[in-house]
Amino acid sequence: MSLDYMFYIFLFLISLAAILLAKFGHNGPKQSLPPGSFGWPIIGEFIDLQRTGLLGKPEEFITKRMQRYNKHIFKTSMFGEKTAILCGPMANKLLFTSEKKLVQTYWPTFLKKFFGTSFFTAPYDEATRTRKLVTSFLKPEVLSDFVRRFDSVFASINDQGRQERLLEEFNLVLSGVFQWPLYFPGTRHFKAVNAARVIRRELLDVIERKRRKREKMMGGCIDEEEEGDRISHLMDVRGEDGKGLTDVEIADNILLLMDAGHDTSSSTMMMLVKYLAELPECYERVLAGESVFLTLFCNFLSSG
Fold it and tell me: Where, if anywhere, are coiled coils annotated (predicted)?
């Protein structure tokens, strides 16, 4: 039995004690909350959320509660945080048009262990400022210069051994960032937090070496290829107030970008195109299937 599941049992016992305390020791006024359940104290409904995720049916966690409580809103508890889930187009409109009015961006506090001072976990005003600086390299005029550099190492780490070690640490972060936030030796969360610290130290070392090299070459010739990566860009960028990012902020935001850019829909599309190009027989089968679909679709339009 893994340590993760052993501690689920431990937390279950703690939850029993917490239920008794909550039932007999709380005499305060009742709050008006949406229908639903917070599940077990401390654990909440995380186990059910994880179970549906492992089965490849995460939507069942939502739909089951929509049917049981309310199709528009219900309460739950995930990752140690009491949460309200809003469902449907009207809920989306409310969230995306009421920023800093009725709602404010918030992420579980345990994510700070991974992404520190990045705009992902910073307070709202600071996050807004930092986001503008970090995403400034996404402007077309900057990206046009980055295209020819995409085959170079992400953060100027050119040693193959260091790259492989960082990849191992990064995989630990990916496997543990959205696990139950129990920081105890042996759990995935514990390994992921420590792996994030290793990557952050490596990034800070890269930033420090870049600064020292810049000081030595002050007034001399600067290697544009080496200075053309994202770390160099974040070292130079300044906000409207003239302030830049600290070394820790740069490292935290680079780590965030690494995590955010992993397993995205664009990554899936890229791998699809790659394998279709490498496997002609698969490409022909996909092409044949699409041709049949287009024929049926055109016949449907013409018959209408």
Answer: none
